[in-house]
Specification:
Number of domains: 4
Strand content: 35-45%
InterPro entries: Cadherin-like_sf, T9SS_type_B
GO molecular function: calcium ion binding
Number of helices: 1
Strand order of the largest sheet: 27-33-32-28-29
Keywords: Signal
Radius of gyration: 54 Å
Number of strands: 33
CATH architecture of the largest domain: Sandwich
Protein name: Gliding motility-associated-like protein
Helix content: under 10%
Organism: Chitinophaga dinghuensis
Amino acid sequence: MKNIYIKKIAPLLFVSAAVLMCCPVPVKAAGARYSSTMAAPPSIDNQTFTIRDDSPLGAVVGQLTATGSNLQWILEDDGSKGAFDLDASGRLIVKDIARLQANRGNIVSVYVMVSDGVSNSNMAEITVAIQDTYVNIAPTLDPIADKGACAGTAVDTIYLTGMSAVEPDQTYTLVAVADAPLLQQLNVTHEGVLTYQLKGGITGGSCMITVMIKDNGGIRNGGQDTRIRTFTLTVNRLPNVNITSDKGTVIAKGDQLTLTATGGDQYQWRAAAGIVGETATASIQVRPTTNTRYIVVATNNAGGCTDTAAIDIRLLGDFIVRANNVVSPNGDGRNDLWKIENIGDFPENELTIVDRAGRTVYSQKNYNNTWNAYMNGQRLAEGTYYYIFRVKNPVTKTTDIARGFITVVVGD
């Protein structure tokens, strides 16, 4: 609403009259009458002007007009509170830019009178309409990249940048809304920290999130007080990861098995005892020496979402050793010794070998693949012998036992 400032002034009453003067009169003019008339006082009428609110200091609002001679211009009352002044020629000029802009969009009145040095004029109201030319600049907010989210209920965060109301005396607010009911919560702070959380059970889909920044500068004269940024939030599924074993989950100690993960695009097995070879593959080889849990992290290429799975491999009390079942101690370098594969996996062991009659032909603690089918310096006769391989289990503190046979062949 425009404010109009008016001050009412009671006008002065001037009277123009003939003045009779008595003075010495020449003889021939005896009885004659003389008269003299005084000049009319100065006068000024109400006037109206318009000026832009962005006018510079000293800009002329308007040239006032008045009647009379040798006029002096007098600013009696200023409804603009100091925005204007009068110069000696009767021009109304801008005196204070800040006060001028404080009155933008308003109509103000100043009251002026003139004087000729003898008489003063009536008070005139000079009305000035201050045009509001301010055009608000839209606030700023950097574009927001599309975002992928992994299914689940974890709270995720996006940090917005480039927020500004532009004009230094303005403030702004931020609001975020989504166009689909995928989110349990969606918030944004004044500092531009946007957080969101998916609803439980959401495994896919997408929505458009709109972020609006608005300042308090208004939209008059075609100004802009709002900027909108949008981005797409896509929900990516988690890998449905599963692990299988080619020999089941209960094996004999010494067995080597293959574990295979499915349901993802990429895999990484966590470090664990008994893994043989590479771990960044779907399938790995393992030879556990104790009960062991194997864990894999699967990743989907779409969105990079991850999930984990685990499998527990348990060892039987009696276990199987992998070894050659023929010993031919002839010095040809082939099967000269009885060798157990991966003997290093059994650090606390004891080997006993007996013949068909049950007589012990060999006994050794911490066996290390050195038996050559000799006893007391003499080569054993051909035939079948039986071994008992005992290993102390470091977890259960019990003794695991493997049994089998060895054929001794005597050749040239």
